[in-house]
Specification:
By secondary structure, the protein is mainly α. The chain contains three helices and no strands. It has one domain.
Length: 74
């Protein structure tokens, strides 16, 4: 996971705290701001769980008709 997404999450947290201080903890604006934080955290989690494609997988994405990329059903 990159530092960039960590920085974005921290910025969203700071924004959520600010919005909640201004609008109140039970306001819809506060809830929406924390939803944004949760979405960023979910994206970070997805990025951690996604393994990078191998060179072969990238090749087959670019050349699906190549003989070595064919998948045969039995």
């Amino acid at each position: 996971m990159s530092n960039n997404i960590n920085q974005q999450i921290e910025q969203e947290r700071e924004n959520a705290r600010s919005v909640c201080d201004t609008s109140g903890a039970s306001s819809s604006e506060c809830a929406a701001a924390w939803d944004a934080v949760e979405e960023m955290q979910a994206e970070a989690s997805d990025q951690r769980n996604t393994k990078p494609k191998s060179s072969f997988e990238k090749y087959c994405d670019d050349n699906p008709d190549a003989a070595e990329c064919r998948i045969y059903d039995e």
